[in-house]
Amino acid sequence: MIFKIDFKSGKPVYLQLVDQVRYAAASGVLQAGEPLPSIRPLAEELRVNRNTIAKAYTELENQGVLETRPGKGCFLKENNSPFTKPIRQKLLLAEIDEAVVMAHHLQVDREKFLALVQERLDYFEQQSGAKKIN
User: Which of 29, 56, 58, 107 is the most exposed, fewest CB within 10 Å of its CB?
Assistant: First the structure.
């Protein structure tokens, strides 16, 4: 997996990493049980502090995306969420609200927004299915 950091985005580097891992997991680029890069080499490659990578991995572990195996590294967990259904729904609603507000600010109408959501759902479904076939 190749990480890309935008130091000018204003978004903390560790959150950029968290988002990229979550995106890769959702699209099927990363499969359950697959290892993530070790902290030290990744920090050197991205030219960031090791603590930044560790913070991203800790956040992903808290979200139930990763599991750390002592002496072996960090691995993508099975898709079993540690959160209860109401908590998962609350987290998802917060993300949806953010997307709706962004669409409003960008003057994207309801039909176009819903079409974009459907397009992205289809894309992730296709990516996930394609990865399972390979």
Answer: 107
